[in-house]
Structures are given as C-alpha cells and as structure tokens.
Amino acid sequence: xxxxxxxxxxxxxxxxxxxxxxxxxxxxxxxxxxxxxxxxxxxxxxxxxxxxxxxxxxxxxxxxxxxxxxxxxxxxxxxxxxxxxxxxxxxxxxxxxxxxxxxxxxxxxxxxxxxxxxxxxxxxxxxxxxxxxxxxxxxxxxxxxxxxxxxxxxxxxxxxxxxxxxxxxxxxxxxxxxxxxxxxxxxxxxxxxxxxxxxxxxxxxxxxxxxxxxxxxxxxxxxxxxxxxxxxxxxxxxxxxxxxxxxxxxxxxxxxxxxxxxxxxxxxxxxxxxxxxxxxxxxxxxxxxxxxxxxxxxxxxxxxxxxxxxxxxxxxxxxxxxxxxxxxxxxxxxx
Length: 335
Prior knowledge:
mainly alpha; two-stranded antiparallel ribbon; 6 strands
C-alpha cells in the first residue's frame, strides 16, 4: 500500500488519531455505565463514578476534535456519512446527553438516584451501541451518486452493523472493567476482575467475527488483507492481537492492577489498525477517497496551524489530569 504523505494524508491521520483517542478514553467511561447495573447500589457504584469524575468531561474533547476536524478537513465525507447515519448520530448524542445529565444529578438529587442511575446506564449503552452500528454502516459501504448520499433512511441497519454495535458495547465494557480494576478497591475491584474475564472473551470473539466478515463485504477489502505481498504485513495484526490477548489473560490471572487496562487499550489499537488497513485511502469505502473529500489546501494548512497549537495543549492537560488522579479511589474520592 503506497502512502503519499501530503497535507490531506496528514489530516487523515490527525482525525484518525482523534477518533482513536475518543474511543479508548471515553470508551471506559461508557463501559462503566454499561456495567453499572451489575454493581451494588452504594459503595461499588459510588467508587465507579468517583473514578471517572475528574476525567470524563475532558475525554469528550476528542469527539469534538474528531467531528469538527472531519467537517473542516473533509466536508464531502462529513456530509455523506452524517446523511447516511443521522438516526445513529442523533441516538448517540442523546445517549451522551442523558449520561452527562445523570452523572451530575445522581449526586445533587439523591432522592431520585435510582432514576439517574438508570439514565446513566441506558445513555451509555445507547451511545456505545450507536457508535458501533455507525462503524459497521461505514464499513459495509454507503450508496453515493454524484457525490451525495443516495441510500435510504435505514440502509445502515444490517446484521453486520448490529454485530459491530454489539462488539463495541462488549469492548467498552472491557475497558470499563479493566479501568475499575486499576482504580477501585474492595468488592468493586473483585467484581471488576470477574467481569473483565468475560468481557475480554466477548471482545475477542467480536473482533474475530468482525474480522472474518469484513473481507467478504467488498472485494477491495479481501485484496488489501490477502493479496501478496501485502498479506505478509497484514498478517501481523492478528498475530500481535493473539499475543496481546495471551498477555491480558495472564496479567488478569496474576492479579495485575494497571496492566489489564493498558493491554485492553493495545487490543483496541490493533482493531483500529485493522480498520485502517481495510479503509485507507477511502474515507467512504470504495467511492470517496480522502483526496476526493478534502477541503482546499489553503484551508487545510490554516487549520493545521491551529491544530499544531491546540493538540499539544489537549495532550498536556489530559496527561496532567491523569497524573494528578493516578491513585486508587474510595467512596469519597481519590486517596
């Protein structure tokens, strides 16, 4: 695969990085919401909420950067993808709104905490499921005629997109469980270890199922994965994934604290690499490349100057926040 590192390619990598950062950083927040019904009312739920309280708002910065960057750098792709997935995007945003409101109000309105807990969990599940279905809808292809979406209102709803939706939910649950192993203590940590085992198995099954189905969606996917000599490089993705999975279950069994979460992030990185192999250089599979969808070069250059300033600031305050709140958390906050 030849990669031409022009300004458009740089922007494609910037947006891919922002999307990946959102997935792994807001993923464990959503994962905790997905797992919330399995936690005991009281200490376990309070610890889980306190563990993400200092960082969950900042994690969504990456969603804004990824979505805004897509709109600014690749307006054609933004218009096609959003038109094709409007119901999913609306569901995701409503889920995030419900989750955010519930997060704040469960502390300020203790008389209705059970209601806010349901809203927090339901909003997290809906947002995660919608993100997963959106991924599947893009992978399976979008009907484009004259550089505009030409499909129907529910073209995104297929068995494959439901599979990717379920896979993202299980994957986020894995991130949430391993985050809790790292950050909470007592019965909450014990419960998180049990859940992480099953979520890890489920995530690997989902990754395997999606990986097995993807090459059959379009012939181009098959060629990118299995044509010689490219297969010598693409074969390293499942190999590294298998090694990471072995290390994950080994660390989990040995009682490691931080390693399961970091290895879960690495598994997501492998999945993201697989998506890159399948899609690049198309931003809308096999119809619109990144160069077809790109904004004028002057616009990209102007935005790149701002991004070169903003991106390090975001990375710096994110790293600082995680460093400050690096310990275990109890019922009343970080130690």
